[in-house]
């Protein structure tokens, strides 16, 4: 013989308000989960957007630096050519410069009148 108490008409051993309270809590928990997931989804979207913007900015900076590098290399080339040209001009000039061949260049203190004597008239 068993002393079991028959279940309520709803099929649950809990009283009606306890079951309703449990259902209400479960519904609130579900709502909190949905809100938390939505909030997390929005935060993840913001994070991905921010990461994409950062990558775009870095790419723009990279392209700008590449252009500047190319420009500077071009300038180096031009300046190197100019230096070669000026070196040649100086070398040619040294061959004919009277100041370099003047015996007065061995004077320790140059005087304007001594230099004038070396210049062609």
UniProtKB/TrEMBL annotation:
Record domain BZIP: where: 30-93
SMART domains linked: BRLZ
One Gene Ontology cellular component annotation held by this UniProt entry: nucleus
Residues making up the signal peptide according to the UniProt record: none
Compositional bias of kind Basic and acidic residues: 53-62
Region (Disordered): 1-69
Protein family per UniProt: Belongs to the bZIP family.
Name used for this protein in its record: Basic leucine zipper ATF-like transcription factor 3
Lineage of source species: Eukaryota, Metazoa, Chordata, Craniata, Vertebrata
